[in-house]
Amino acid sequence: MESQTAPKRGAEDVAENDEKRQKLTDTPTDPDGINPQALIVVDPDGDLIVCAGEDTGAPRRFRVCSAAMRRSARFFKVLLFGNFAERKPDDDGRDKEWLVSLPEDSPDALQILLQIIHAQPANIPTSPDMSTLCQILVLVDKYGLFDILGPWAPLWMKAAAARVADALADIPTLVEINWIAYFMGNYDLFNSTGNEIAAKASLNRESDALCDEAGMLLSAGYEFPVEDMLVHITARRREFLQEYLDFLYSCLEFDNDISCRIDPAGLRDNGLRCTTLTLGEMCQKMLETGDFIPRYSADILSPLKILVDRIKQTVNVEGSFHGKRCTFAKSFLDFDADFKQTYKTRKLATDRDQKQMEIHCKRYRLEKTMTELGP
């Protein structure tokens, strides 16, 4: 996502903006012409009313200082003091309120940024909820407000990292943390949360898209772009599933020259017999349970954990010839343990993502929280 550096609205929107001003003041008002129930006073002496969230159905208005807004970002300097419809109304003898509408912006996120702009640290959360933090980052990028964050950026990044443990059973929150990690340039957190999502998500049969525990699409319900990120995670999910399937089918492969896989020092005839009986029992178990495990990950919709449990049940048979000595259960448990120890640290970001994250990290002045990228 590229930062916006100039407003999109032009002077031809003057009439439309005047209509919005009138609409927003056609409510019970105080002597200043403002609805007191809908107004949050950020600056008591402010000369500008900013309205946010009209498109969300829960608009909120803020009294702010236009000079503070101008200093916060070039966007607002051009918007408020350039040749745009949002500039201060001309003094034509009518008592017009200076009102700027930002209908797509989250009121909660904008309020926090306005408090930073107006130097009100007591009202700024050090650990906002992840959804609000995502919306804050959307507005920071949209308006180019990177320079105002100061100490808040590292605090928020730390708060996001601290939420991971509680979010392991909540895939939508993991998606939010993953997105935050990308846009604040935390490489390790991006990789670990992305791999965690890949290991826990399901696949929707109709749309071939990732789902959470309740079957809800992960690409739905967010007010920030997650589609590109989920493409990488979907591919990683397929890789994880295929690794387990490859292990299972390597056990099921039959070679006439093979000795017993557990006791290779045994006699060849005994080895062939042992292998045949063990593989036969594994196949018989799949037939009895009706749980035939496909060869390729594209055919699996369920999360990785369910596949792991299915394979564990399938390989947990004792060979008829060597009994408890001859089973694939132990080798599978070793494989599973090794996977669980390493999967979170696997690289998920592409080289292009990695370079973009370095840029994001510098914008937020988070060089110290950006870990060594390695080769």
From TrEMBL:
Gene3D superfamilies: Potassium Channel Kv1.1, Chain A. It comes from Cladorrhinum samala. Residues 1-35 are annotated as: Disordered. InterPro entries: BTB/POZ_dom, SKP1/BTB/POZ_sf. This is BTB domain-containing protein. Residues 9-24 have a biased composition (Basic and acidic residues). The lineage of its organism: Eukaryota, Fungi, Dikarya, Ascomycota, Pezizomycotina. Residues 46-126 form the BTB domain.
